Amino acid sequence: MKPLRKVGIIGWGAYIPRYRIKIQELGDIWGESKERVELNLGISEKSVAGPDEDTTTIATEAVKNALSRAQINPRDLRAIFVGTESPTYAVKPAGTIIAEALNATPNILASDLEFACKAGTEALQCCMGLVSSGMIRYGVAVGADVAQSRPGDDLEFSAAAGGAALIIGTKNTPKSVATIEASYSYCTDTPDFWRRPTEIYPSHGEAFTGEPGYFSHTVNCARILMNELDLKSSDLTYVVLHQPNGKFPLRAANILGFSKKQIEPGLLVGEIGNTYSASAMLGLTAILEIAKPNDKILMVSYGSGAGSDAFYIIVEEGVEEKRELAPKISEYISRKKYIEYITYLRWRKLIKGI
After folding, report:
1. CA distance 74 to 77
2. pLDDT band with cut points at 50, 70 and 90 for residue 171
3. N or C: which end of the chain has fewer CB within 10 A?
4. Mean pLDDT within 291-319
């Protein structure tokens, strides 16, 4: 999917809650060894939303940071798409709340999207299409989640909270950060993760999680986009893959011929856990903090159910001037306060009757 009129990222923003819980503490609670949890997952701790934080507040902070870097009036935004699988309301879009908080209403298209962990990159594709067609001048794509998990389930050791936002405009916008040259999507009906409407916690089919789910979609999506654009792994400076744990993206990168040097700058899961719809986009924000003009980036998301979106991105001159205009993701990661498991349960309302 190559836009007829080239589009670019003109601003980016991230937000990670300050609270953390050690993965080993979760393992101790549930009688799991360090080898079984921390070492097997490649995660040492995960971010936890505070008692006054949810997907909407996290997304709002990320968009505010993106606007600071884009240096545009919020009223110039004409679309906001929020990708999440943990919406604040069952029936009421987060997009309208965020737009109101930013003073971007009423002349704006707002919608929430859901496709497990790749909903944020679907939001990005929607903004790309609207900007490229000339229907809007600027749009913002958000990936944000406060990931859900049943206490004691394997998902609890990785499910985290965070958000990322990208403001999209045309490539000729002054001080563009990066150009999105092309995108590709790869989807099948693979039942690796799901949640029924009446159920509180998601379920997952472990037999489908690895090869049929994550690796098949991520690797094939990346390969097809690279083949279409005649790209080799050595042509790319950085690669960002969805990060459900610390091992899957490293293995997928190796299959695709990428080195650790290419993937490690955007690999955040070990310090913050799996932020679901924000995962790949947060990895991209980390790379934009260090990237230089003409660096080439491949970003590939993955969402259970299942599908991947891949993007080929070339960094522009504006990145160097704009990276200091808002808090960096490295700053959000380093400012942290540890909480105990009982606090985590209370904040996430996992103790019934409280």
Report:
1. 6
2. confident
3. C
4. 96
- The closest of 7, 353, 9, 6 to 177, measured between CA atoms, is 9
Q: Catalytic pick from 45, 85, 122, 181?
A: 85
Q: What is the mean pLDDT of the chain?
A: 93
Active site includes 242?
yes
Judged on CB neighbours under 10 Å (0-12, 13-18, 19+), 5 is exposed
Among this protein's residues, is 117 annotated catalytic?
yes
Burial of 230 (0-12, 13-18, 19+ CB in 10 A): exposed
Q: How far apart are CA 344 and CA 21, in angstroms?
A: 8
How many Å separate Cα 6 from the centre of its chain? 23
pTM for the model stands at 0.95
Q: Which residues contact 232 (CB under 8 A, 6 or more apart)?
A: 226, 257
Tokens describing residue 94: 């987060």
For residue range 220-248, what is the model confidence (pLDDT) as tens digits? 999 999 999 999 999 999 999 999 999 99
Contacts of 294 (CB under 8 A, 6+ apart): 314, 315
Measured CA to CA, the distance from residue 228 to residue 182 in angstroms comes to 10
- How many residues appear in the chain? 354
Distance CA 7, CA 176 (A): 9
Out of 45, 242, 271, 289, the active site residue is: 242
Rg of the chain over CA atoms, in angstroms? 19
- For this structure, is 126 an active site residue? no
In terms of Cα–Cα distance, which of 333, 340, 329, 272 is closest to 47?
Answer: 272
